[in-house]
Amino acid sequence: MQAHAGDDARTRATPRTAGPGDADAERPPARPDRAITTRGLVKSYPGPDGTITDAVRGLDLDVLTGETYAFLGPNGAGKSTTLAMLCALARPTAGRATVAGADVLRSPDQVRRLVGMLFQHSALDPDLTAEQNLHIHARLYGLRRRHARVRVTEMLEAVGLADRRRALVRTLSGGMRRRLELARGLLHAPEVLFLDEPTTGLDPHARAQVWQYLRALRDRHGSTLFVTTHYLEEAENCDRLGILDHGRLVAEGTPLALKAEIGADRLVLRTGDDVAARQVVARAVPPGTALTADPEGVSLRVPDGSAWIPRLCAALADQGIAVHAASATPPTLDDVFFHHTGRSIHTPRSHPAPDVTAAAAAEPAAEEAP
Ligand SMILES: Nc1ncnc2c1ncn2[C@@H]1O[C@H](COP(=O)(O)OP(=O)(O)OP(=O)(O)O)[C@@H](O)[C@H]1O
């Protein structure tokens, strides 16, 4: 791990007991190998009329130091609530959590010093300049005036905003503001940076730029990044991801491993007669293969989907059914999400549930007869 200016900031924010001349006093404290650990973490909100919302229901999580970890989940899954507990901004109802070695319940102040946060809603003052916003934040985190100035300059350069340092925040584009927030979150060189939907509302170009800076900053500082998102491509950028649904972790792994678990490709055939085609396809594929009545055509999941295309086209041609289009796509993270939750992350209920299996579809459909 390279030394960097932020190490000084962290050392100052967290006084140690070593005396002058102690060699260890020159080095930042060793980082724990786990940046975040939670066990049975719960958050329930009391509502009107004695109702309770269980936003987070018993979360066990281990995030390694230096890892980029994403929490993927739809609106209301409990992502922001988890973040608030991990940043010691909300008190857990039950369970425990440590962040950068500090306990969120016993040492919330220490946790807050060790983490950086990028909230969903801007925490910048639009009537101050980019530089002023960062300077105030640096001073709030206890950086001495001179050091704060150096650090602000460094971070403005790091996010490509050095030439806009004197611009009022209100005059910056959405993407620039997000990058400024990133600089703000990293000013005090936090051990763990929490980013709550960091690119929501940005166009694809600005989104890609934020990630480009984020990766560069992570590589330079070795910070752990914990990102919440409902953008699949954002989750693809991460080392590991956890799928959160109704306050529970329903799956966890690298994007590659999670997709590999699904195994089968999605095959879609658009034909001249999808109803008849479904019967033909069902007879051709292994028994138990799920076929869906997809508006796009006949769709099914089979391993090695592209190898099935010529076989199924031949079977359909034999029955005089024209095939207008055929495609096989490997599993996506949306498929992973669908597999674990029974719905798509973007458009709830847009994936119809499998309506028949191969064996059932191959049966003559007596109830369909007039
Ligand atoms: N302060 C609060 N008081 C009562 N209920 C809350 C509060 N904060 C969150 N909730 C509820 O807890 C659940 C989880 O909300 P949370 O904001 O953590 O989800 P999320 O996954 O971050 O969603 P989003 O992507 O929309 O931000 C929701 O049902 C929400 O309505």
Outline:
With 370 residues, the chain is α/β, with parallel strands linked by helices.
Write the layout of secondary structure elements.
Blueprint: H1 5-13, E1 34-46, E2 52-64, E3 68-72, H2 79-86, E4 94-99, E5 102-103, H3 108-114, E6 115-118, H4 130-140, H5 145-158, H6 174-186, E7 192-196, H7 204-221, E8 224-229, H8 232-236, E9 240-245, E10 248-253, H9 255-262, E11 265-271, H10 274-284, E12 290-294, E13 297-302, H11 305-318, E14 323-329, H12 333-341, E15 356-357, H13 358-362
Parallel strand pairs: 3-8, 3-9, 6-7, 7-8
Antiparallel strand pairs: 1-2, 1-4, 4-5, 9-10, 11-13, 11-14, 12-13, 12-15
Helix pairs in contact: 4-5, 5-6, 6-7, 9-12, 10-11
Describe this structure in words.
By secondary structure, this protein is of the alpha/beta class. Helices cover 36% and strands 25% of the residues. It has 2 domains: 5-253, 3-Layer(aba) Sandwich (Rossmann fold), CATH 3.40.50; 260-368, Alpha-Beta Plaits (2-Layer Sandwich), CATH 3.30.70. The strands form 3 sheets. A 6-stranded mixed beta sheet has the order 6-7-8-3-9-10, sandwiched between helices. A 5-stranded antiparallel beta sheet has the order 14-11-13-12-15. The protein has a 4-stranded antiparallel beta sheet with strand order 2-1-4-5, with helices on one face. It is elongated and about 80 Å long.
The name of the CATH architecture of the largest domain is: 3-Layer(aba) Sandwich
Helix run count: 13
Bulk shape: elongated
Low-confidence stretches: 1-27, 348-357, 361-370
Oligomer: single chain
- N-to-C span: 73 Å
